[in-house]
Amino acid sequence: MPTRDIAEVVAAMNVRLLRIPPERTAQRLFLETYRRTTLAVGRAIEDAQFEDPEWVQRWDVAFADLYLTALDLDLADSPDVPRPWRLAFDAPASLPALRHVLLGVNAHINYDLPQALLAVISDDEFADPVVVGRRARDHQRIDAVLSGRVGAEDNELGAVSARGMVDRLLQPLNRLSSKRFLREARQKVWHNTAELQQARVAGEQEYAARLAELGVLSAARIADLLAPGQVLLRLAVAGFGVTLPPPVQGRWVDSSAV
After folding, report:
1. Domain segments of the chain: what residues?
2. pTM of the predicted model as reported, rounded to 2 decimal places
3. Which of 18, 21, 72, 110 is most buried, judging by how many CB atoms fall within 10 Å of its CB?
4. 3-state class of 52 per DSSP?
5. What pLDDT, on the 0 to 100 scale, is given for residue 149?
6. Beta-carbon neighbour count of residue 196 at 10 Å?
7. Low-confidence ranges of the chain (pLDDT < 50)
8. Closest CA to 239 of 177, 167, 176, 158
9. Alpha-carbon distance values, 40 to 35, 45, 46, 169 (Å)
10. Is residue 38 a contact partner of residue 60, using CB atoms and an 8 Å limit?
11. How far apart are CA 30 and CA 139, in angstroms?
């Protein structure tokens, strides 16, 4: 379990901002966006917006650690960067700022977030409907924090990336689209967390297989994020999240029975 608090996570992000080479502007852009969001979550905890603020803080630290670990692996040129993050980090630098942020959001929400929830919800807690209900409600409350950041983050992106007339005219609709697809993705995250928890109970091999499936699904979303056109409007219609299908029965053979 993480023992650090959000202030320490923000400090760790500040260290990475200094370490990121100047030419890696896309990675810096996502980290700056994520840092501001993390600060917003910290303020929401201080404002008593959650039922279990101590748990939300542990969850947020576990969540951030998954991204920081992937970033550190990439900065070290490690081959072990998870595939959704590898594709996000390796995207062409010429892409618009919004696309780079969405690539990072895809890897972090669709792939990392279910893992972070599992890190702070034990199997015993999953078996307790009262605890699970409290965790689910706090998970939903994050939507209010994210929705509250959409306008400010849109302005931040507008400051670093030139927008054409169509983009400016669609700005209000794009903001509504962002709020919709973020909410939709988080709903699917909760489903995927339950699927991964069942796999965790079944054993390490089953969990690794299901996590690999989630990685494939998350990586596949990148094609939608890179397709030409109004990406936010497209995501509002088609969705942003991914859904783990039911597990294939009989996938594993008990080696002790062979």
Report:
1. 6-243
2. 0.83
3. 110
4. coil
5. 61
6. 21
7. 1-2, 162-177, 250, 252-258
8. 177
9. 9, 9, 10, 28
10. yes
11. 22
